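Collaborator request, handled under Task 6.
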Amino acid sequence: MSNVEIGLASIVIILVLIQSGMHVAIALMTVSFFGVVLVKGKFAIAGALLSQAALDSVARYSFGVIPLFVLMGVLVGTSGLGRDMFDVAGQLFRRFRGGLGIATVFANAVFAAVNGTSIASASVFTKVAVPELIRQGYTPRFSVGVVAGSSVLGMLIPPSLLLILYGILAEVSIGDLFKAGIIPGIVLALLFSIAILLLARFASGFTGTSTSTDLPVMARSDMLLKSVPVAALILLVLGGIYGGFFTPTEAGGVGTLGALIVAQFKRRLGVRELGRILIETGQVTASITFLIIAAHMYSRLLALTGLPNAMTGLLADWNLGLPAILLLYLVVIILLGTILDSASILLILLPLILPVVEPFGIDLVWFGIITIIAVEVGLLTPPLGVACFVIKSNLDDDRIGLSEIFSGAAPFALIMIAMTALVVAVPWLALALI
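C-alpha coordinates returned to the collaborator:
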Protein backbone atom coordinates (compact mmCIF):
# COMPACT_ATOMS: atom_id res chain seq x y z
CA MET A 1 0.00 0.00 0.00
CA SER A 2 1.13 3.53 -0.72
CA ASN A 3 1.18 6.10 2.07
CA VAL A 4 -1.92 7.86 0.68
CA GLU A 5 -3.77 4.55 0.56
CA ILE A 6 -2.84 3.98 4.21
CA GLY A 7 -4.30 7.40 5.02
CA LEU A 8 -7.55 6.62 3.19
CA ALA A 9 -7.79 3.19 4.81
CA SER A 10 -7.31 4.77 8.25
CA ILE A 11 -10.46 6.89 7.79
CA VAL A 12 -12.55 3.88 6.82
CA ILE A 13 -11.19 1.75 9.67
CA ILE A 14 -11.83 4.52 12.23
CA LEU A 15 -15.45 4.89 11.10
CA VAL A 16 -15.97 1.12 11.28
CA LEU A 17 -14.41 0.89 14.77
CA ILE A 18 -16.51 3.78 16.11
CA GLN A 19 -19.70 2.33 14.68
CA SER A 20 -18.84 -1.06 16.21
CA GLY A 21 -18.82 0.56 19.64
CA MET A 22 -15.16 1.35 20.28
CA HIS A 23 -14.47 4.62 22.10
CA VAL A 24 -13.51 7.39 19.68
CA ALA A 25 -10.16 8.14 21.34
CA ILE A 26 -9.16 4.46 21.48
CA ALA A 27 -10.06 4.01 17.80
CA LEU A 28 -8.00 7.05 16.77
CA MET A 29 -4.99 6.05 18.90
CA THR A 30 -5.02 2.44 17.71
CA VAL A 31 -5.28 3.30 14.03
CA SER A 32 -2.68 6.07 14.39
CA PHE A 33 -0.15 3.74 16.01
CA PHE A 34 -0.44 0.93 13.50
CA GLY A 35 -0.68 3.40 10.62
CA VAL A 36 2.64 4.99 11.61
CA VAL A 37 4.14 1.49 11.92
CA LEU A 38 3.08 0.76 8.33
CA VAL A 39 4.50 4.07 7.08
CA LYS A 40 7.79 4.00 9.03
CA GLY A 41 8.23 0.24 9.37
CA LYS A 42 9.28 0.28 13.04
CA PHE A 43 7.30 0.07 16.29
CA ALA A 44 9.91 2.13 18.15
CA ILE A 45 9.55 5.07 15.78
CA ALA A 46 5.75 4.92 16.03
CA GLY A 47 5.91 4.87 19.82
CA ALA A 48 8.32 7.79 20.03
CA LEU A 49 6.47 9.90 17.47
CA LEU A 50 3.06 9.41 19.00
CA SER A 51 4.22 9.87 22.59
CA GLN A 52 5.68 13.24 21.59
CA ALA A 53 2.37 14.11 19.90
CA ALA A 54 0.54 13.29 23.14
CA LEU A 55 2.87 15.53 25.14
CA ASP A 56 2.61 18.41 22.68
CA SER A 57 -1.20 18.25 22.67
CA VAL A 58 -1.71 18.88 26.41
CA ALA A 59 1.50 20.63 27.54
CA ARG A 60 0.17 24.13 26.95
CA TYR A 61 -1.29 26.85 29.13
CA SER A 62 -4.50 27.14 27.11
CA PHE A 63 -5.38 23.53 27.92
CA GLY A 64 -6.21 24.63 31.48
CA VAL A 65 -9.41 26.20 30.18
CA ILE A 66 -11.05 22.77 29.82
CA PRO A 67 -11.27 21.55 33.45
CA LEU A 68 -12.15 25.06 34.65
CA PHE A 69 -15.12 25.51 32.32
CA VAL A 70 -16.23 21.92 32.89
CA LEU A 71 -16.23 22.53 36.65
CA MET A 72 -18.08 25.82 36.16
CA GLY A 73 -20.74 24.09 34.05
CA VAL A 74 -21.28 21.32 36.59
CA LEU A 75 -21.58 23.86 39.41
CA VAL A 76 -24.09 25.90 37.39
CA GLY A 77 -26.19 22.80 36.77
CA THR A 78 -26.11 21.91 40.46
CA SER A 79 -27.19 25.43 41.43
CA GLY A 80 -30.52 25.10 39.64
CA LEU A 81 -29.92 28.15 37.44
CA GLY A 82 -31.61 26.43 34.49
CA ARG A 83 -34.90 26.24 36.40
CA ASP A 84 -34.50 29.86 37.51
CA MET A 85 -34.00 31.10 33.96
CA PHE A 86 -36.97 29.10 32.67
CA ASP A 87 -39.22 30.59 35.37
CA VAL A 88 -38.09 34.13 34.53
CA ALA A 89 -38.41 33.58 30.77
CA GLY A 90 -41.88 32.12 31.25
CA GLN A 91 -42.93 35.38 32.87
CA LEU A 92 -41.38 37.53 30.15
CA PHE A 93 -43.06 35.71 27.24
CA ARG A 94 -46.29 34.48 28.83
CA ARG A 95 -48.48 36.77 26.67
CA PHE A 96 -46.96 35.68 23.34
CA ARG A 97 -48.48 33.01 21.12
CA GLY A 98 -46.13 30.08 21.65
CA GLY A 99 -44.64 32.07 24.52
CA LEU A 100 -43.52 29.12 26.62
CA GLY A 101 -41.64 27.71 23.61
CA ILE A 102 -39.89 31.06 23.16
CA ALA A 103 -39.18 31.07 26.90
CA THR A 104 -37.47 27.69 26.51
CA VAL A 105 -35.23 29.08 23.76
CA PHE A 106 -34.45 32.20 25.80
CA ALA A 107 -33.66 30.19 28.94
CA ASN A 108 -31.46 27.79 26.94
CA ALA A 109 -29.55 30.71 25.38
CA VAL A 110 -28.87 32.29 28.77
CA PHE A 111 -28.04 28.93 30.36
CA ALA A 112 -25.60 28.26 27.49
CA ALA A 113 -23.69 31.42 28.43
CA VAL A 114 -22.79 29.92 31.81
CA ASN A 115 -22.74 26.21 30.99
CA GLY A 116 -21.06 25.38 27.68
CA THR A 117 -22.48 22.01 26.61
CA SER A 118 -25.55 21.12 24.57
CA ILE A 119 -25.91 17.79 26.33
CA ALA A 120 -26.21 19.41 29.76
CA SER A 121 -28.78 21.88 28.40
CA ALA A 122 -30.83 19.07 26.86
CA SER A 123 -30.74 17.11 30.11
CA VAL A 124 -31.72 20.06 32.33
CA PHE A 125 -34.55 21.44 30.18
CA THR A 126 -36.05 18.02 29.45
CA LYS A 127 -36.88 17.81 33.16
CA VAL A 128 -37.65 21.51 33.60
CA ALA A 129 -39.48 22.57 30.42
CA VAL A 130 -41.09 19.52 28.78
CA PRO A 131 -43.59 18.70 31.57
CA GLU A 132 -44.65 22.37 31.82
CA LEU A 133 -44.99 22.75 28.04
CA ILE A 134 -47.23 19.68 27.82
CA ARG A 135 -49.27 20.84 30.82
CA GLN A 136 -49.86 24.20 29.15
CA GLY A 137 -51.37 22.53 26.07
CA TYR A 138 -48.43 22.14 23.69
CA THR A 139 -48.06 18.85 21.82
CA PRO A 140 -45.48 16.37 23.15
CA ARG A 141 -43.75 16.47 19.74
CA PHE A 142 -43.27 20.24 19.87
CA SER A 143 -42.38 20.20 23.57
CA VAL A 144 -39.44 17.83 23.12
CA GLY A 145 -38.51 19.36 19.74
CA VAL A 146 -38.08 22.88 21.09
CA VAL A 147 -35.88 21.57 23.92
CA ALA A 148 -33.76 19.56 21.46
CA GLY A 149 -33.45 22.47 19.03
CA SER A 150 -32.61 25.15 21.58
CA SER A 151 -30.13 22.90 23.42
CA VAL A 152 -27.67 23.23 20.52
CA LEU A 153 -27.14 26.86 21.54
CA GLY A 154 -24.92 25.48 24.30
CA MET A 155 -22.18 24.64 21.82
CA LEU A 156 -22.29 27.97 19.97
CA ILE A 157 -22.80 30.61 22.65
CA PRO A 158 -19.58 30.87 24.69
CA PRO A 159 -18.16 29.40 26.82
CA SER A 160 -18.51 26.32 24.63
CA LEU A 161 -16.52 23.13 25.06
CA LEU A 162 -16.81 22.42 21.33
CA LEU A 163 -15.33 25.84 20.51
CA ILE A 164 -12.51 25.08 22.95
CA LEU A 165 -11.89 21.73 21.26
CA TYR A 166 -11.83 23.37 17.83
CA GLY A 167 -9.47 26.08 19.09
CA ILE A 168 -7.00 23.53 20.43
CA LEU A 169 -7.14 21.34 17.31
CA ALA A 170 -6.87 24.26 14.86
CA GLU A 171 -4.48 26.26 17.08
CA VAL A 172 -6.79 29.28 17.02
CA SER A 173 -7.34 31.79 19.84
CA ILE A 174 -10.08 30.47 22.11
CA GLY A 175 -10.85 34.01 23.21
CA ASP A 176 -11.49 35.04 19.59
CA LEU A 177 -13.70 31.99 19.08
CA PHE A 178 -15.73 32.91 22.16
CA LYS A 179 -16.24 36.44 20.85
CA ALA A 180 -17.13 35.12 17.40
CA GLY A 181 -19.84 32.83 18.74
CA ILE A 182 -21.87 35.55 20.45
CA ILE A 183 -23.64 37.18 17.49
CA PRO A 184 -24.38 33.92 15.59
CA GLY A 185 -25.70 32.42 18.85
CA ILE A 186 -28.03 35.38 19.42
CA VAL A 187 -29.19 35.39 15.79
CA LEU A 188 -29.87 31.64 15.91
CA ALA A 189 -31.92 32.06 19.11
CA LEU A 190 -33.91 34.85 17.43
CA LEU A 191 -34.54 32.67 14.35
CA PHE A 192 -35.78 29.86 16.61
CA SER A 193 -38.13 32.30 18.38
CA ILE A 194 -39.51 33.69 15.10
CA ALA A 195 -40.05 30.14 13.86
CA ILE A 196 -41.98 29.27 17.02
CA LEU A 197 -44.21 32.35 16.58
CA LEU A 198 -44.93 31.38 12.96
CA LEU A 199 -45.53 27.72 13.79
CA ALA A 200 -47.88 28.62 16.64
CA ARG A 201 -49.86 30.89 14.30
CA PHE A 202 -49.92 28.90 11.07
CA ALA A 203 -49.19 25.30 12.14
CA SER A 204 -51.03 24.93 15.44
CA GLY A 205 -51.49 21.24 14.71
CA PHE A 206 -47.72 20.84 15.13
CA THR A 207 -47.28 23.05 18.20
CA GLY A 208 -50.63 22.54 19.87
CA THR A 209 -52.76 25.33 21.27
CA SER A 210 -51.86 26.63 24.68
CA THR A 211 -55.17 27.51 26.30
CA SER A 212 -53.94 27.42 29.87
CA THR A 213 -52.77 30.66 31.49
CA ASP A 214 -52.23 29.40 35.00
CA LEU A 215 -48.51 30.19 35.24
CA PRO A 216 -48.10 31.80 38.66
CA VAL A 217 -47.36 35.50 38.46
CA MET A 218 -43.88 36.20 39.76
CA ALA A 219 -43.07 39.42 41.59
CA ARG A 220 -40.42 41.61 39.99
CA SER A 221 -38.24 41.21 43.05
CA ASP A 222 -38.34 37.41 42.66
CA MET A 223 -37.51 37.70 38.96
CA LEU A 224 -34.58 39.94 39.79
CA LEU A 225 -33.35 37.57 42.49
CA LYS A 226 -33.41 34.64 40.06
CA SER A 227 -31.75 36.64 37.26
CA VAL A 228 -28.89 38.33 39.11
CA PRO A 229 -26.66 35.22 39.65
CA VAL A 230 -26.78 34.29 35.95
CA ALA A 231 -26.24 37.87 34.80
CA ALA A 232 -23.30 38.22 37.18
CA LEU A 233 -21.64 35.04 35.87
CA ILE A 234 -22.12 36.11 32.24
CA LEU A 235 -20.65 39.52 33.04
CA LEU A 236 -17.70 37.92 34.83
CA VAL A 237 -16.82 35.43 32.11
CA LEU A 238 -17.78 36.99 28.78
CA GLY A 239 -17.40 40.57 29.96
CA GLY A 240 -13.95 39.76 31.32
CA ILE A 241 -12.83 38.12 28.07
CA TYR A 242 -14.36 40.74 25.77
CA GLY A 243 -13.09 43.61 27.91
CA GLY A 244 -9.57 42.20 27.86
CA PHE A 245 -9.42 41.73 31.64
CA PHE A 246 -8.99 37.94 31.49
CA THR A 247 -7.59 35.33 29.18
CA PRO A 248 -10.07 32.48 28.54
CA THR A 249 -8.20 30.32 31.07
CA GLU A 250 -8.35 33.06 33.71
CA ALA A 251 -12.02 33.66 32.90
CA GLY A 252 -12.65 29.97 33.51
CA GLY A 253 -11.09 30.27 36.96
CA VAL A 254 -13.04 33.42 37.83
CA GLY A 255 -16.29 31.93 36.49
CA THR A 256 -15.75 28.75 38.49
CA LEU A 257 -15.26 30.79 41.65
CA GLY A 258 -18.44 32.73 40.87
CA ALA A 259 -20.41 29.52 40.25
CA LEU A 260 -19.06 28.09 43.50
CA ILE A 261 -20.26 31.16 45.41
CA VAL A 262 -23.71 30.95 43.75
CA ALA A 263 -24.04 27.25 44.57
CA GLN A 264 -23.03 27.90 48.17
CA PHE A 265 -25.42 30.86 48.44
CA LYS A 266 -28.30 28.68 47.17
CA ARG A 267 -27.29 25.98 49.68
CA ARG A 268 -26.83 23.33 46.98
CA LEU A 269 -23.25 22.42 47.88
CA GLY A 270 -22.86 19.88 50.65
CA VAL A 271 -19.69 17.86 51.17
CA ARG A 272 -21.10 14.82 49.38
CA GLU A 273 -22.35 16.94 46.47
CA LEU A 274 -18.98 18.67 46.15
CA GLY A 275 -17.28 15.28 45.90
CA ARG A 276 -19.69 14.20 43.16
CA ILE A 277 -19.04 17.45 41.27
CA LEU A 278 -15.26 17.01 41.41
CA ILE A 279 -15.49 13.40 40.24
CA GLU A 280 -17.77 14.34 37.32
CA THR A 281 -15.42 17.18 36.37
CA GLY A 282 -12.46 14.80 36.42
CA GLN A 283 -14.27 12.23 34.28
CA VAL A 284 -15.32 14.78 31.64
CA THR A 285 -11.87 16.41 31.58
CA ALA A 286 -10.12 13.05 31.24
CA SER A 287 -12.42 12.08 28.38
CA ILE A 288 -11.73 15.36 26.53
CA THR A 289 -7.99 15.01 27.20
CA PHE A 290 -7.87 11.57 25.61
CA LEU A 291 -9.80 12.91 22.61
CA ILE A 292 -7.33 15.75 22.11
CA ILE A 293 -4.32 13.44 22.47
CA ALA A 294 -5.87 11.00 19.99
CA ALA A 295 -6.59 13.81 17.52
CA HIS A 296 -2.99 15.01 17.59
CA MET A 297 -1.76 11.45 17.08
CA TYR A 298 -4.07 11.06 14.11
CA SER A 299 -2.99 14.38 12.60
CA ARG A 300 0.64 13.14 12.76
CA LEU A 301 -0.36 9.99 10.89
CA LEU A 302 -2.15 11.97 8.20
CA ALA A 303 0.84 14.27 7.80
CA LEU A 304 3.12 11.27 7.34
CA THR A 305 0.85 9.67 4.74
CA GLY A 306 0.62 12.90 2.76
CA LEU A 307 -3.15 12.50 2.39
CA PRO A 308 -3.99 16.20 3.05
CA ASN A 309 -1.50 17.27 0.36
CA ALA A 310 -2.93 14.70 -2.02
CA MET A 311 -6.43 16.06 -1.37
CA THR A 312 -5.21 19.61 -2.02
CA GLY A 313 -3.68 18.51 -5.30
CA LEU A 314 -6.82 16.62 -6.32
CA LEU A 315 -9.07 19.58 -5.60
CA ALA A 316 -6.69 21.83 -7.56
CA ASP A 317 -6.90 19.45 -10.52
CA TRP A 318 -10.70 19.66 -10.32
CA ASN A 319 -10.44 23.47 -10.34
CA LEU A 320 -12.66 23.71 -7.27
CA GLY A 321 -12.74 27.15 -5.69
CA LEU A 322 -13.28 27.92 -2.03
CA PRO A 323 -17.12 28.07 -2.29
CA ALA A 324 -17.31 24.58 -3.81
CA ILE A 325 -14.87 23.18 -1.23
CA LEU A 326 -16.86 24.74 1.60
CA LEU A 327 -20.12 23.32 0.24
CA LEU A 328 -18.59 19.85 -0.09
CA TYR A 329 -17.12 20.11 3.44
CA LEU A 330 -20.42 21.18 5.03
CA VAL A 331 -22.36 18.43 3.24
CA VAL A 332 -19.87 15.83 4.52
CA ILE A 333 -20.20 17.21 8.08
CA ILE A 334 -24.00 17.01 8.01
CA LEU A 335 -23.91 13.49 6.58
CA LEU A 336 -21.38 12.35 9.19
CA GLY A 337 -23.62 13.91 11.82
CA THR A 338 -26.17 11.16 11.17
CA ILE A 339 -23.73 8.50 12.40
CA LEU A 340 -21.09 10.26 14.58
CA ASP A 341 -21.10 12.60 17.56
CA SER A 342 -19.84 16.19 17.32
CA ALA A 343 -16.37 15.62 18.80
CA SER A 344 -15.70 12.65 16.51
CA ILE A 345 -16.50 14.69 13.42
CA LEU A 346 -14.06 17.43 14.46
CA LEU A 347 -11.34 14.94 15.34
CA ILE A 348 -11.57 13.14 12.00
CA LEU A 349 -12.22 16.01 9.59
CA LEU A 350 -10.14 18.93 10.88
CA PRO A 351 -6.71 17.32 10.28
CA LEU A 352 -7.86 16.65 6.71
CA ILE A 353 -9.56 19.92 5.82
CA LEU A 354 -7.34 22.55 7.47
CA PRO A 355 -4.34 21.99 5.14
CA VAL A 356 -6.77 22.22 2.21
CA VAL A 357 -8.43 25.54 3.13
CA GLU A 358 -5.50 27.39 4.72
CA PRO A 359 -3.88 28.24 1.34
CA PHE A 360 -7.03 30.22 0.48
CA GLY A 361 -6.22 32.59 3.35
CA ILE A 362 -9.55 32.13 5.10
CA ASP A 363 -10.10 33.29 8.67
CA LEU A 364 -9.97 30.13 10.82
CA VAL A 365 -12.18 31.75 13.48
CA TRP A 366 -14.97 32.24 10.93
CA PHE A 367 -14.31 28.76 9.59
CA GLY A 368 -14.64 27.42 13.13
CA ILE A 369 -18.05 29.02 13.66
CA ILE A 370 -19.54 27.57 10.47
CA THR A 371 -17.98 24.22 11.34
CA ILE A 372 -19.56 24.19 14.82
CA ILE A 373 -23.02 25.16 13.53
CA ALA A 374 -22.90 22.45 10.86
CA VAL A 375 -21.61 19.87 13.33
CA GLU A 376 -24.42 20.70 15.77
CA VAL A 377 -27.03 19.85 13.12
CA GLY A 378 -25.96 16.26 13.70
CA LEU A 379 -27.23 16.45 17.30
CA LEU A 380 -30.77 16.64 15.91
CA THR A 381 -30.66 14.23 12.96
CA PRO A 382 -31.36 10.48 12.96
CA PRO A 383 -30.19 7.84 13.46
CA LEU A 384 -27.67 9.04 16.08
CA GLY A 385 -28.95 12.48 17.14
CA VAL A 386 -27.19 12.61 20.50
CA ALA A 387 -29.33 15.46 21.90
CA CYS A 388 -32.49 13.55 21.01
CA PHE A 389 -31.24 10.42 22.78
CA VAL A 390 -30.33 12.49 25.86
CA ILE A 391 -33.86 13.90 25.93
CA LYS A 392 -35.35 10.42 25.61
CA SER A 393 -33.22 9.11 28.47
CA ASN A 394 -34.31 11.99 30.73
CA LEU A 395 -38.01 11.86 29.89
CA ASP A 396 -40.41 10.65 32.53
CA ASP A 397 -43.11 10.05 29.90
CA ASP A 398 -42.67 6.70 28.13
CA ARG A 399 -45.36 7.61 25.59
CA ILE A 400 -42.98 9.98 23.79
CA GLY A 401 -40.77 7.99 21.42
CA LEU A 402 -37.58 8.86 19.56
CA SER A 403 -39.49 9.35 16.29
CA GLU A 404 -41.52 12.15 17.90
CA ILE A 405 -38.36 13.80 19.25
CA PHE A 406 -36.66 13.70 15.85
CA SER A 407 -39.75 15.04 14.05
CA GLY A 408 -40.17 17.78 16.65
CA ALA A 409 -36.53 18.82 16.21
CA ALA A 410 -36.66 18.79 12.39
CA PRO A 411 -37.71 22.47 11.93
CA PHE A 412 -34.87 23.58 14.18
CA ALA A 413 -32.35 21.46 12.25
CA LEU A 414 -33.48 23.13 9.02
CA ILE A 415 -33.07 26.57 10.63
CA MET A 416 -29.53 25.62 11.66
CA ILE A 417 -28.69 24.66 8.08
CA ALA A 418 -30.01 28.05 6.97
CA MET A 419 -27.94 29.71 9.72
CA THR A 420 -24.82 27.96 8.43
CA ALA A 421 -25.47 29.37 4.97
CA LEU A 422 -26.06 32.82 6.47
CA VAL A 423 -22.72 32.86 8.29
CA VAL A 424 -20.97 31.63 5.13
CA ALA A 425 -22.55 34.44 3.13
CA VAL A 426 -22.11 37.11 5.81
CA PRO A 427 -18.78 36.49 7.61
CA TRP A 428 -19.33 39.73 9.57
CA LEU A 429 -21.72 37.83 11.86
CA ALA A 430 -18.79 35.85 13.20
CA LEU A 431 -16.04 38.45 12.94
CA ALA A 432 -17.71 41.69 14.07
CA LEU A 433 -16.67 41.44 17.72
CA ILE A 434 -13.07 40.33 17.15
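The cover message to the collaborator said: "The two ends are 46 Å apart (CA to CA). The chain has a mean pLDDT of 85. Please let us know whether this matches your experimental observations."
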